[in-house]
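[#protein-structures] MJ: dropping LPS-assembly lipoprotein LptE here for a structure pass
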Amino acid sequence: MKVLRRAIALTVLAASLSACGFHLRGSDGRFNMPFQSIYLAFPETSPLGTELKRNLRGGDTEVVADPALAQARLDVMSESRGKAILSLNSQGRVREYLLTYTLVFRVRDKAGAELLGPTEINLKRSITFNETEVLAKESEEALLYRDMQTDLVQQILRRLAAIKPV
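AK: finished. structure tokens for LPS-assembly lipoprotein LptE:
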């Protein structure tokens, strides 16, 4: 009888905690943007632009193809990926690389006033290298760049959501 009461009490407690509706803002992947429509000045073939569009369309913000119809415009000032030697082994061969992904962008309103000045996001990841596993390391490098791209999109969304409307 005592065990049954405890089980029922724990079940009620667990149900009440899970039903309160508490969650962190943006933790479900949706952000409240201070504008209803946005134009993204990415090239059509940009994987970063495609992923950002997909994430924005999941919320209440409409991504428009004509900048004249948008309340906000995200301008890409520069986007670059880099790979540099991080360390060498005792024979002078590469042991580690440093992968970088840098994006500089700004956000303007319909009238051209800056809502968010030039903002640089710089991501870095290190990758070990072994010349006997070149194909595997190339796949790992591509995976790390994809991971950095996803991280970059989330950082852009957070910055867009933090814009104070004028």
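MJ: nice. The longest helix spans residues 134-161.
AK: one more thing. DSSP finds three helices and five strands in the chain.
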